[in-house]
Amino acid sequence: MSAKLIDGKKVAEITMKLISDDVENWVKAGNRRPFLKVVQVGTDPASTSYIKAKTRSCKRVGIDTDTTHLPDTVSARELKSIIRSFNEDENIDGILVQLPLPSHLSSHDVIESIDHRKDVDGFHPMNVGRLTVDQPTFKSCTPAGIFELFRHYSIPVKSKHAVVVGASNIVGSPMAIMLSRENAEGKATTTICHKYTKDLTRHTIAADILIVAAGQPSLIKAEMVKEGVVVIDVGINRVADESSDKGYKLVGDCDFEGLKNKASWITPVPGGVGPMTVAMLMKNTLLAAKKSIYPDD
């Protein structure tokens, strides 16, 4: 068996075109162009790179954006005061605080200070809670992007055994919730594993759908999965590669070369889940501008 490739780059292109058309129709109807406010604390190079990618995507789909840069010495009180001013600004539709934050700041505390109606990352407790009880909400962008891939490639979820490796608030936990919900998208029997799981292979080898977001290069090997599994690799890890001009290469949490001969479908890294995450951020920002999820009272 040779796995079919789940091309996130291609699906993201299609999704971005639809969003771009939707944005232009929204503006032509006399509405203000959607606006995304990004907040960066400190100068973490990876964060700067992610923000540049998000800014480019905003430009492509016609969403206005700008970034507020704050020093890594900013206090929690100052940061939350700035966020509150953005909450109250009617010209700002979405607010994104780039993670991770410096160690003296609590990401939970900061995220909770964002107006949940502008939380386009889908991390606010209100939005996570609504996701859990299957109410309309901003969905965390990576899990939402994975479901777009399932839809595009007609990969069934209902009645499948889905195993999620990684229990983060950003990917693993919301992914498990979405897979298990009694709605049109979910209805999978769902297992969630993490670093304290004993005998990981016992769980992964039973998976019909395996989503891996553990942040550990090549964690999942071929002998850990069964024939025909659908593999969604969320990991993006830098590993040394002297043959590369950069001195490193990007790899996922799965051994792609080993798994591609056992899986029925598999995402590459890069070019799999990553592009979909950014596309879903654009979608959430447009939904926020339209007040589709939280209409004005």
Q: In words, what does this structure look like?
A:
Helices cover 38% and strands 16% of the residues. It is of the alpha/beta class and 297 residues long. The protein folds into 2 domains: 34-115, 3-Layer(aba) Sandwich (Rossmann fold); 141-275, Rossmann fold. The chain contains 10 helices and 11 strands. Strand 9 (237-240) and strand 10 form a beta hairpin. The model has no long low-confidence stretch (mean pLDDT 95). The protein has helices at residues 8-28, 45-61, 76-88, 107-112, 125-132, 141-152, 172-180, 200-204, 256-259, 274-290, and strands at residues 4-5, 35-41, 64-70, 94-97, 161-165, 189-193, 209-212, 230-233, 237-240, 248-251, 265-266. The chain has a 6-stranded parallel beta sheet. Strands 3-2-4 form a 3-stranded parallel beta sheet, sandwiched between helices.
Topology of this structure?
Layout: E1 4-5, H1 8-28, E2 35-41, H2 45-61, E3 64-70, H3 76-88, E4 94-97, H4 107-112, H5 125-132, H6 141-152, E5 161-165, H7 172-180, E6 189-193, H8 200-204, E7 209-212, E8 230-233, E9 237-240, E10 248-251, H9 256-259, E11 265-266, H10 274-290
Parallel strand pairs: 1-11, 2-3, 2-4, 5-6, 5-7, 7-8, 8-11
Antiparallel strand pairs: 9-10
